[in-house]
């Protein structure tokens, strides 16, 4: 079934309340890899907690607290179903992808020793690099990298070249936030498991755009953020196979993650997932995330992917027709388009496009090893989603055609 972005826009206050304009200009939002707009249903789900419940979870014995517990538990079930986890207990709520990856990395410190190997790729986001840097310093483990192929993609062949019997962790993004290629997660997991390594899927850029099935892919751990998939900010998910989660040590300690503790230092941890959910939880965010999962399921990922491919094709054709763009991922599988305008600094391009009402991202996009592969200091990134239209793409292409005139943005 085809997706109707014009109808979908009615679900989003950023379009419905602004009449598709922002600051008097047409609103052409193409920074969806950074964060997405939120539909009314997500906002209403979060508001429901603040307006009708506002009680803490797993602490109270009164009716509002019971309502909070019920809503929280149901949201966990919704998210578990969304990713096809075996049980809701395999879903841990975090503040986002960054916390989730830190939870995993630091949680594995007791499992890593001097000489063990942690495999990443050249295209990973800082959140999937820097925690491992610190853990490697603490444990004496070694960081190794899967080299990208000529297009900038992580491949099974690339992993086979670096993996060894010393490898304990393989942590890769299923979609690079810069290159936009979808990697073969199932095959990469098989290779990792041949060497008895734990495979971690950073699904920040894939979760909103394609169907995710953790049982089918067989990943050991997966992390993602809610705000990149129409959900609220400040909420994310750490999924893990129960037998893997049982081995991890918590990063955060405090209320409700323990079963008991004594003055002599004795501590007994609570069961999974609660041992990883210390302190007051972001209940409003959790309810909003569950609503986002339901919204995306109602739209359907086949329709979303088809729509993104159609818009991407138009954008690539337009940029090539302009003749002034260098495109770094022309045949990528997703709505991420990474490019530069010849002889113009990426930030100047982004500023100029903003002057035209087109919002994109520029710089290294937090993937600061990747410029070593691309041989450029930064790029411009346009990223598409289900509410973008052909008119958005036409406006984007038109603005890029005159981006050499970027000084006009400062002297209008």
UniProtKB/TrEMBL annotation:
List, separated by semicolons, the cofactors it needs. Answer: pyridoxal 5'-phosphate
Q: Name one GO molecular function term.
A: pyridoxal phosphate binding
Q: Which CDD domains match?
A: SufS_like
Q: Which residues form the Aminotransferase class V domain?
A: 28-396
Q: Which residues form the signal peptide?
A: none
The record's listing under Gene3D superfamilies reads: Aspartate Aminotransferase, domain 1 (3.90.1150.10), Type I PLP-dependent aspartate aminotransferase-like (Major domain) (3.40.640.10)
Query: What reaction does this catalyse?
Result: (sulfur carrier)-H + L-cysteine = (sulfur carrier)-SH + L-alanine
- InterPro entries attached here? Aminotrans_V_dom, Aminotrans_V_PyrdxlP_BS, Cys_dSase_SufS, Cysteine_dSase, PyrdxlP-dep_Trfase, PyrdxlP-dep_Trfase_major, PyrdxlP-dep_Trfase_small
Tell me its family: Belongs to the class-V pyridoxal-phosphate-dependent aminotransferase family. Csd subfamily.
Query: What does this gene product do?
Result: Catalyzes the removal of elemental sulfur and selenium atoms from L-cysteine, L-cystine, L-selenocysteine, and L-selenocystine to produce L-alanine.
* Official protein name in the record: Probable cysteine desulfurase
Provide the species name: Treponema rectale
